[in-house]
Amino acid sequence: MQPSNSLAELDVLLEKSNQDSSDWGEYEYEDGEALLAKLNTDERAVLFRSAKVRPANWRGCLVSILHPSAADEGEELVGALHDSDEDVAYEALRRTFFFCGFDDSDKKGVFEDRRRRVDAFWERVRQDRVVMLRMQHLSRASLRLTSYWRALEAAAAES
Prior knowledge:
Elements: H1 5-16, H2 22-38, H3 41-50, H4 56-65, H5 71-80, H6 86-99, E1 102-105, E2 109-112, H7 119-126, H8 129-139, H9 143-158
Antiparallel strand pairs: 1-2
Helix pairs in contact: 1-2, 1-4, 2-4, 4-6, 8-9
């Protein structure tokens, strides 16, 4: 299969980008999201398979544009929780908390916001013991992440 222009463009963008850069945070991630949305099923499969052998900056940028309303992106996000690069795994953790419906504010601290929740993804995460254990383990890195974990754990127990 010959890669489409969108797949090739996304690959180049991910290769040259860094998720911590201001360029990525201001506008490049939007370009990445748009290119990802243009890919067909086969191209997405090629992209996600190639992630395992790509540099950490590439994988981190990919994780930062995944939206788990697409099942394959949700699975890629869950898989990234086990990434060999700590920064990629923590980016996956933050995005997982977000799409499970948890956010943070100066006034409220960590709180549940069901408007942000992707229901199918939330169900996938909360019912998978391995994923929950991995999230708990990663959350021990900081007080802030521990607060996210506690909120998620309490909500999962209520469900």
